[in-house]
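User: Hey, quick favor. My workstation is busy. Could you predict this chain's structure for me?
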Amino acid sequence: MKVAVVGATGMVGQVMLRLLEERSFPVTELIPVASERSVGKQIKFNNQEYSVLGLQTAVDLQPDIALFSAGGSTSLEWAPKFAEVGTTVVDNSSAWRMHPDHKLVVPEINANELTEDDKIIANPNCSTIQLVMALNPLHQAYGVNRVIVSTYQSISGTGVKAVQQMENERSGKTGEMAYPYAIDKNCLPHCDVFLDNDYTKEEMKLHNETKKILNDDSVQVVATAVRVPVQGGHSESVNVQLNKTATVGDIKKMMHETEGLTLKDNPEMNVYPMPLYSESKDDVFVGRIREDFTQPNTFNMWIVADNLRKGAATNAIQIAEYLVEKGLLKQNAVEA
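Assistant: No problem, here it is.
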């Protein structure tokens, strides 16, 4: 199986390569792809050296699947070109997420909607993935009415430039700024760009993508997204109003039994999810589950996940694994 990783030299691309190894994905030919300035660089995969290729060269090789993590403009231009030669694209950018003709997939929730005809599949936003992983079982059992979420998002979600900025600040160096202000010893209520309604694009992604993944426009989500000086892992404080009556015990049991979730909730022993312990793990961690005593059928919870893994690379590779398992890549690639 020919597998292209587009954006192979970036933070998410590097995690994708590591996960392809860890999860023994059936790669018979790896095609690492990056921008022109990275063409010719060497990367290691399964103890072999590979040269980074350009986008057109990769298209000409007609991979069976292409895992994209190279930004929205690259995806808009190049994902259709890969699809035209029969490649199935799993795209990690925001380019295709809300397009009515393309599916937005979290495998544990809606992978069963995928068919052989889906040539460009959207990977949701990192903060959306961990939110819907916890919301979906609640929605199936009780119906989710309204969600208020505040995010505490890692600088790794911005990229290498942001990590370098924080390292520079901590060592007293000056350098390129990824943010308009210092991030070390600070919190920025500013993830992505501000929109006309004074919400940020990141905040509106949580609103729009949650509805699409849960396939229910009645679910209301309002968000405040904050960048914090943490290098690995996004955290979310979530207030969920349900349509039916539930108990804290019901919800804890449900979280414990849901694939892909790990319940960490024992306040007496100081057990709760933290980004420090989610880093390099694939599960979404849920804890601090408690009743909102100010209104009925409402609960608070704290949700944490590694934004580079389940929030990006792991989810994309799980989609690819599902396509392989269900035989949805068969006879997709155009014969040379």
